[in-house]
Amino acid sequence: MAVDLGEARTGLAVCDKEEILAYPLDVIHEKSQKAILSAIKKAAQENNAQRIVVGHPRNMDGSFGERAKKCEYFAEKLRNTLDIDVVLFDERLTTKVASQYLNTANVREKKRKSQIDAAAAVVILEGYLKQIKNKK
User: Total domain count for the chain?
Assistant: First the structure.
């Protein structure tokens, strides 16, 4: 399961049991960290998640800014809330790639805004899955 922490929306994605295909699950429209944690916990339980991958925003030069620190803090909160592995994964350019996917699929501008965070979570999860397969 992947999490993309947007400013006002949090995208969720999951993959199949074989860890081949990732697909969007939901977008959480909450600002409260407690509400977001609760929604992720529920989604993780419903989908029998074995691991949660949290998008870790880096600057283009590879450095970490304020938002990355917030994601690190959030990942730690998830670790303390759930009894499963939580990892951070570089999310540079994932929103741009997700936007290109939605453009290619001819998703209209109005609908794109509501789907971009879940699509970005898919890109994060696909990147993570690819990385762990390459390490094997």
Answer: 1
Token pair for 84:
């499963």
Which residues, other chains included, contact 4 with Cβ-Cβ below 8 Å and sequence gap of 6+? 10, 11, 12, 13, 55, 91, 94, 95, 117, 118, 120, 121, 124
* Rg of the chain taking only CA atoms, in angstroms: 14
Spell out the residues 6+ positions from residue 83 whose beta carbon is closer than 8 angstroms to its own.
none
The whole domain housing 20 covers 2-135
Question: Which residue type, as a one-letter code, is found at position 114?
Answer: S
* pLDDT tens per residue, range 34-69: 999 999 999 999 999 999 999 888 878 888 888 889
Predicted confidence (pLDDT) at residue 110 exceeds the cutoff of 80? no
In DSSP terms, which residues pair with 2 in a beta bridge?
A: 13, 53
Name the token pair of 14: 């999951």
Structure tokens at 56: 């870790």
Q: Looking at residue 37, which CATH number applies to its domain?
A: 3.30.420.140
pTM: 0.82
CB 40 within 8 A of CB 53: no
Quick one: pLDDT at residue 58? 82
